[in-house]
Amino acid sequence: MKSSIHPQNYRPVVFSDEVAGFAFLTQSTAQTNDTITWEDGNEYPLVKVHISSASHPFFTGEEKIIDTEGRVDRFKARFAKAEERKAALANKAKKAKAAAERKANKQ
């Protein structure tokens, strides 16, 4: 194993999942400028997380869509546009077929 590749500057840090209202104190090297006063009255660095064991669907048993970048909405919009194009092409083909039948019946 290589020496001197693991960090040595571990310190107490509070990780907070604000959506679930859950926080825990642990040792970490995570860098942050935020601080929080913990239950013991001491002030510790604060790292905010989007998902923790208190809010993750695997641990809670709930199905929840977490969409921080709008990916689901963009997918639904693309899907709706594709369905509209498909319907428009089917309608256009139906009209072309009807026009060809009328033309064939005239002759």
- Read across the widest sheet, the strand sequence of neighbours is 2-1-4-3
Percent strand equals 15-25%
**Average pLDDT value?**
86
Number of helices: 2
Q: Which bin fits the share of residues in helices?
A: 25-40%
Question: Uncertain regions: pLDDT < 50 for 5+ in a row?
Answer: none
The computed structural class is alpha+beta
How far apart the termini lie comes to 87 Å
Give the total of beta strands. Answer: 4
Task: Describe the protein in words.
With 107 residues, the chain is α+β, with helices and mostly antiparallel strands. Helices cover 37% and strands 21% of the residues. The protein has helices at 57-60, 71-106, and strands at residues 11-17, 22-28, 35-37, 43-48. Strands 2-1-4-3 form a 4-stranded mixed β-sheet, with no helix packed on it. The longest helix is centred in the last third of the chain and has 36 residues, at 71-106. It is rod-shaped and about 95 Å long.
